[in-house]
TrEMBL record:
Segments forming a coiled coil: none
MF term (GO), any: phosphorelay response regulator activity
Annotated ranges, domain HTH LytTR-type: 150-254
Name by which UniProt lists this protein: Response regulator transcription factor
Organism: Luteibacter yeojuensis
UniProt superkingdom: Bacteria
Response regulatory domain mapped to chain residues: 4-117
Stored InterPro entries: CheY-like_superfamily, LytR-like, LytTR_DNA-bd_dom, Sig_transdc_resp-reg_receiver
Assigned keywords, A-Z: Phosphoprotein, Two-component regulatory system
Signal peptide stretch: none
Residue positions, PTM 4-aspartylphosphate: 55
Length: 256
């Protein structure tokens, strides 16, 4: 009996990559594809797939919202497709939930598909699988308390800076300097404390005294002794420690 499968991803290239690999498997019966969470929820309800490849980061209605809309106990076997950094991957692994981290290769995809088939064959999806998905959902929701805005003092008043407008952050003794495209604000907070409240999918520590907004990176060039220079979209050049390079490059590649 073939496995009825649905693919959900708002990025057409990523969606078609999954579809192409699934078409090579004679055990898979493709039900279709969805480019947003709302249509995915409808398709899951109406078509009752056995297996769904579900992107987490989608606008308006995320993959996690789809799970909550359908209900964990009624979700089919699910492979989460994600660009989340390590903390989410640890949550998936701890609860034995199948996942793919973008960008993924053919070998990783086939291994994930093999595990999904094994679980379906063992008929344990609705009980153990549902409980595992709920635990992952809880873990990811707990990490959504990241800052959208940072309060800064301007003269005698407090104003707010959108985190998307931050280019980079510099540690300076007992304060941090928040560098925007056209100005700098000082905030009385330690670098470690502020880093813990910024979304690690978008901000990376490239040096002991520097955090950058990954979305504002223009280019990365090798320097010497294993170091690199990161050029921001404002033209600012920052040195990246060789100890931070691997994690940073993994984060940047996930955005691609």
């Amino acid at each position: 009996m073939k496995i009825a499968t649905l693919v959900v991803d708002d990025e057409p290239i990523a969606r078609h990559a999954v579809l192409r690999l699934l078409r090579e498997d004679p055990d898979i019966a493709l039900l279709g594809e969805c480019g947003d969470g709302a249509s995915a929820a409808r398709a899951i309800r109406e078509q009752s797939p056995d297996l769904v490849f579900l992107d987490i980061q989608m606008p308006a209605m995320t993959g996690l919202d789809v799970v909550e809309t359908i209900g964990v106990s009624r979700m089919p076997a699910t492979v989460f497709v994600t660009a989340y950094e390590q903390y989410a991957v640890r949550a998936f692994e701890a609860n034995a939930v199948d996942y793919l981290v973008k960008p993924f290769g053919r070998g990783r995809f086939l291994e994930t598909l093999r595990r999904a088939k094994t679980r379906l064959g063992a008929a344990r999806v609705s009980a153990e699988g549902g409980e595992a998905i709920q635990q992952v959902l809880d873990a990811l929701r707990r990490r959504e308390g990241y800052l959208d805005r940072v309060p800064v003092r301007v003269d005698e008043r407090v104003t707010f800076v959108d985190v998307d407008d931050i280019v980079w952050i510099k540690a300076n003794r007992n304060v941090v300097e928040i560098h925007l495209a056209d100005r700098v604000h000082e905030v009385r907070e330690t670098m470690t404390s502020l880093a813990g409240r910024l979304d690690p999918r978008h901000f990376a520590r490239v040096h002991r005294s520097a955090i950058i907004n990954v979305r504002r990176v223009q280019s990365i060039h090798p320097w010497f002794n294993g170091h690199h220079v990161v050029t921001m979209d404002t033209g600012q050049k920052l040195r990246m420690s060789r100890y931070q390079q691997e994690a940073f490059m993994r984060l940047v590649s996930a955005k691609g």
